[in-house]
Amino acid sequence: MTQLHPLESIILSEDEYLATELASEGKREYIDGRVYAMAGASHNHNFISGNIYRQFGNHLAGTPCAAFMADIKVRLGKDYVYPDVLVDCSKMAGDDYFSLAPIIIVEVLSKSTRKTDTTTKLIRYINLPSLKEYVLVEQDFVSVQVLRKSNDWKPEYFYLGDQVIFGSVELILPVEQIYDRVDNQEMNEFRQQNPLFPNH
To answer: pLDDT band at 172, cuts 50/70/90?
Structure first.
């Protein structure tokens, strides 16, 4: 998730938030009646989100499922958030601007968002009836954490050399593909030791 800044002077009702969000100059999340402005993301954050979104999108082509990146809200009761990547297979009627039934949600972590993504949002996400997998990806080092409904939301960790199984969409991705183009110490060392790996 990109960095959030509370707009301390703005406390809105759910209806007020929805009515003003489309006209807002930037994306804003809505949690516990307070509006949070979303700041820009780093290159590494965008590479990771883009890599996952592209792999999901290619894999899901021709199916009822679709991948979305950053611009589609998820409704969590009366809260609304923008996951970095999500997959939704529902045909439920609803607002064109938010997902009603995501089956996978991905958040890319940073120092400023790790607490929210691993506490506040985690609790809300895993209580979504539709959600099957919640994925947390570090950007400053290589670590992919997957929490699965089928495993009682217990975390599984994946590192360089591992393959991440996204069971809900029957997709397997090597960790290296998730971190393609990412500039951190682990990936730079990995590329030096594996000259056949694409060195973008």
So the answer is: very high
DSSP state string for 52-119: HHHHHHHHHTTSS-EEEESSSEEEETTEEE--SEEEE-------TTEES-EEEEEEEE-TTTHHHHHT
Burial class (CB in 10 A: 0-12, 13-18, 19+), 136: buried
Q: What is the pLDDT of residues 87-109, one digit of tens each?
A: 999 865 455 778 889 999 999 99
Domain boundaries, the chain: 43-193
CATH code for the part of the protein at 43-193: 3.90.1570.10
> What's the predicted TM-score (pTM) here?
0.90
As separate numbers, helices (DSSP H) first and strands (DSSP E) second, the chain gives: 6, 14
